Amino acid sequence: MAWYPGATRMELQPESDSQPAIVPTQFIMHSIAAPWTARRIYEYWRDSTNLDSHFGLGYEGDLGQYIGTETRADANYRANLRPDGTGAVSIETASNLQHTDPWTDAQVEQLIRLGVWLHERHGIPLQICRTASDPGYGYHRLHADWAVSGTACPGDARVQQFKTVVFPGIVARANGQQEEPDMDATQARQLAEVHKVLVPYMGWQYKGMGQVDAWAILNGLSTQVAAQTAAIKALAAQLGDDVDTATVVAAVEKAIADAVVKVSVDVTGLTNS
Fold first, then answer.
1. CA distances from 109 to 18, 42, 96, 187, 233 (A)
2. Is 226 helix (H, G, I), strand (E, B) or coil?
């Protein structure tokens, strides 16, 4: 069995050892219709149902793997019941209860990274599955044989993202045409939290930006804060032996935190106002 190094291993037992082997030829993306973390998805598979997926992905980019990719998981119906032993790798992704919302930037980045690894590790071809058994990449509702009685999963917004962002991103990065962001899973989760804080202050331009640009902005802001803190410490150290440097720094840092700095962002960089 194969385990993706970019995911947290949360092995389902006895399924991981008892279910038959497959030769993975497809990657199928799902929405679980619940705003769950990867850990919560694992607990649901473990405690509440006899179904399972290979991977689970939370809103913040937290990625868990429950079953090795060369072992059958049951979330794809007939995609894992083919007589030739080929099968599909499945991922359940957090969504709203109606699976109508788009994937977050952190989710998109993880889907692309995983898609590239599956191509490199298992040779899944860089194409969209043309039939239910055709090797390649797809989403749950793409073919009727992948769902017991039909489904809208993963929802219209995510189908559009799959076609215009996720699958093209997998192809481009696998072919070396798109540089992988210098960002790990922890940073992806941090970026999701930064989104919540910065979007109200940074205007509509920021909302549509990709992760790479957003992470560059975050690094720029962090550098500015670090430089300011260093300057404050140096200044405080010059004020005399009777001055509590930590108190001065804490007071100034609080003042900075209390200030609302509106940042205007465009493609040329940062402008403070």
1. 32, 21, 19, 11, 38
2. helix
pLDDT level of residue 160 (50, 70, 90 thresholds): very high
Which one-letter DSSP state was computed for residue 20?
P
Tokens coding 244:
């509590």
> Is the distance from CB of 91 to CB of 56 less than 8 angstroms?
yes
C-beta neighbour count of 70 within 10 angstroms? 17
**Tens digit of pLDDT for each residue in 179-205?**
777 655 555 555 555 544 544 444 333
For residue 200, give the 3-state DSSP assignment. helix
Cβ neighbours around 31 below 10 Å, total: 26
Q: Show the tokens assigned to 182.
A: 């210098």
Helices (H), 30-154: 38-47, 105-122
Q: What is the pLDDT of residues 102-122, one digit of tens each?
A: 999 999 999 999 999 999 999
The residues near 97 (Cβ < 8 Å, ≥ 6 apart) are: 33, 34, 35
Count each helix (H run) and each strand (E run) in the chain, helices first. 9, 8
| Nearest alpha-carbon partner for 36 in 20, 21, 25, 47 | 47
